[in-house]
Amino acid sequence: MRLPIALAALCLSFIPALASVRIKDITFARGVRDYQLTGYGVVVGLQGTGDTLRNSPFTEQSLASMLDRMGVNVRSFSLRARNVAAVMATASLPPFAGWGSNIDVTVSSMGDATSLMGGTLILTSLSGPDGATYAIAQGPIAVSGFTVAGQTETLTHGVATVGRVPNGATVEREPPKPLNEGGSMVLELRNPDFETAVRIADAINAYTQKHYRFRTARERDNRSVALIGPAQVGATRFMAEIGELRVEPNTPARVVIDERTGTVVIGQNVQISPVALTHGGLTVRISETLNVSQPAPFSRGRTVVTPQTSITAAEQTGQVGMLGGTTLKTLVSGLNQIGLRPSGIISILQAIKTAGALQADLVIQ
């Protein structure tokens, strides 16, 4: 019996894993986040793969305005350059980034340019949600994709209209600092859970009670834990210390199904109440053949082609089996004994959930 691919991957979960994880791997400090920047710019130096100025009037206006600022008046001329492209520049400003730091910039074409390979981004201001300029970007663009076109065929690999300028932006203004609520810090859980929040607070309190003689953590809800740092230790050092503490997170009982790829992911705490099920399939085969009908000799008839259709139906025999389990290993073993394809497993799990025997959340993507 062949093991379904989706369930064969699940058997890897039986390999012994660490019983605990670090706090900094399952939480993050509230307010410490990236600051998104965006800007409009112009790329020059393309090898005839830029925007068609007639179809992209904003590119022509940008080119004319740029030349006008440099003292070149082209307002009365009709530009027909094909080595210029209008782009949107985006970047992520990391937290605590200081003045003069360098960050990467992603450049995406806005017009009908076919490739940004070989282009150079001209000085572009990157602004935040408040409209202020936080970085200035400029530099050559690195493009991983390419497009080669001939008269009758076109070869495309990757995306040639999106590129990257490594360390192409210089920070001109620091991002807003996170605000502390009454002098306290807050840890946000990446996967909210009440039990996990309590375990994190208990682990931190056990550590601080031993080293600082008082409790510093308090669970607020299923997604946050409030902290009050010791007065004799800075916030950075304190976060580094508690980040290395290990806890055992509690995972929810959940089954995730992706019907497009046939992927089934079953959580460790998923349980199925004992149920009886059978699964079979009906196969209908339709075949058509063309027969030539030829008239007898010396007759006035004509030769015609007559189609002939044949329809056969076959249904697989199925047996009623018992399925149920209190552990992931028992559940996977029961599904493996049925011997189904991933599509059949998806149908069975959906039917078990409808019957009320699947004691878990069913997420269908």
Question: What is the element layout, followed by pairings?
Answer:
Layout: H1 5-10, E1 21-22, H2 23-26, E2 27-29, E3 35-44, H3 57-69, E4 84-93, E5 102-109, E6 120-127, E7 133-140, E8 146-149, E9 154-157, E10 162-171, E11 185-189, H4 194-211, E12 217-219, E13 224-227, H5 235-243, E14 246-247, E15 254-258, E16 263-266, E17 271-277, E18 282-293, E19 304-315, E20 321-325, H6 328-338, H7 342-355, E21 358-359, E22 361-364
Q: What distinguishing features does this structure have?
A:
Aspartate Aminotransferase, domain 1, alpha+beta, disordered N terminus, four-stranded antiparallel beta sheet, 365 residues
Task: Describe the protein in words.
The strands form 7 sheets. The chain has a 6-stranded antiparallel beta barrel. Strands 2-11-13-12 form a 4-stranded antiparallel beta sheet. The chain has about 375 residues and is of the alpha+beta class. It has helices at about 5-10, 25, 55-70, 195-210, 235-245, 330-340, 340-355; strands at about 20, 25-30, 35-45, 85-95, 100-110, 120-125, 135-140, 145-150, 155, 160-170, 185-190, 215-220, 225, 245, 255-260, 265, 270-275, 280-295, 305-315, 320-325, 360, 360-365. The chain has 3 domains: about 20-30 and about 180-245, Aspartate Aminotransferase, domain 1 (Alpha-Beta Complex); about 35-170, no CATH class; about 255-285 and about 320-365, no CATH class. Residues about 1-20 have low confidence and may be disordered. It is flat and about 115 Å long. The two termini are about 30 Å apart.
Broad structural category: alpha+beta
- Main pleated sheet: 6 strands, antiparallel, barrel
Radius of gyration: 32 Å
Measured by DSSP, the beta-strand proportion falls in: 35-45%
- What is the string of helix and strand elements? HEHEEHEEEEEEEEHEEHEEEEEEEHHEE
